TrEMBL record:
Domain of life, source organism: Bacteria
Keyword Hydrolase: yes
InterPro entries: MBL_superfamily_lactonases, Metallo-B-lactamas, RibonucZ/Hydroxyglut_hydro
SUPFAM superfamilies in the cross-refs: Metallo-hydrolase/oxidoreductase
PANTHER family: 102 KBASES UNSTABLE REGION: FROM 1 TO 119443, QUORUM-QUENCHING LACTONASE YTNP-RELATED-RELATED
Naturally occurring in which organism (per UniProt): Amycolatopsis cynarae
Domain Metallo-beta-lactamase residue range list: 47-255
Protein family per UniProt: Belongs to the metallo-beta-lactamase superfamily.
Reported cofactor(s): Zn(2+)
Protein's name in the database: N-acyl homoserine lactonase family protein
Keywords: Hydrolase, Metal-binding, Zinc
Amino acid sequence: MTDADKIKLTILPTGTMHADLVWLLIDPSRMASRNNRERLRDWVELPTHVVYIEHPSGKKLLWDAGVPRDWDTRWAAPGFNEVFPVDTVTEDMWLDSRLKQLDLEPGDIDYLLLSHLHLDHAANAQLWANTGTTIVVDEEEKKGAFSFDGYNLGAHIKSDYDGLELTTINEDTEILPGITLLRTPGHTWGTLSMKVDLADSGTMIFASDSLYRRESYGPPATAAGIVYDTVSWFASVEKIRSVAEQTGATVVFGHDDEQIKNLRTGVGNYYT
């Protein structure tokens, strides 16, 4: 089997945010206590990434859409520019730069798979307006993301995705042979994870914000400050764990500053 007959997967870092760790990890060992009331907060790196996939069928897919260049102004109204600044990023990391490095236009992507519609995962989705690309989200995510009036509801900014034609799924769905979207709600109404079965590297599960970091996964699983439905979130973590154990998968977390350093990333550094 040649590389042309295999799924080819590239992880592309798209800039690093910083935030207080409590947003990502409610860990009692890190919190203030009666005897340590002045404990300093943990200000941590939150790397972001997208995943570009070339399928042997000839189809091209992109998992998530990264953070926006204009994050400071776009996120100002809800105040997320202060609590999640995208303050460690180079010109080559922005999504439009990544597409140019791949010699692609947005319309060259056949499927844009959005794990959920938060501002750091769907911010560049409007690049795919009127391109013919199939944009896939969870059915419950779409319902929730249009359930409010005004600029935003938490980390959902409606202008990121308003007006786009969104194709929905309501069960675990194989998009193409070897590429399956798993329903893993809890972080939001309809957060998705992506399972990719690779010929040489084995199965990889991209958990997005179903699992922010290695500590989130555990065991035991540790919840976060941004979780829509904690009961569903814990169930989704165990679903991912079950699939990973059955397949021997590598689980890739959504914003783990240590793991990303140990993954092959960038154009040309792909997995098969």
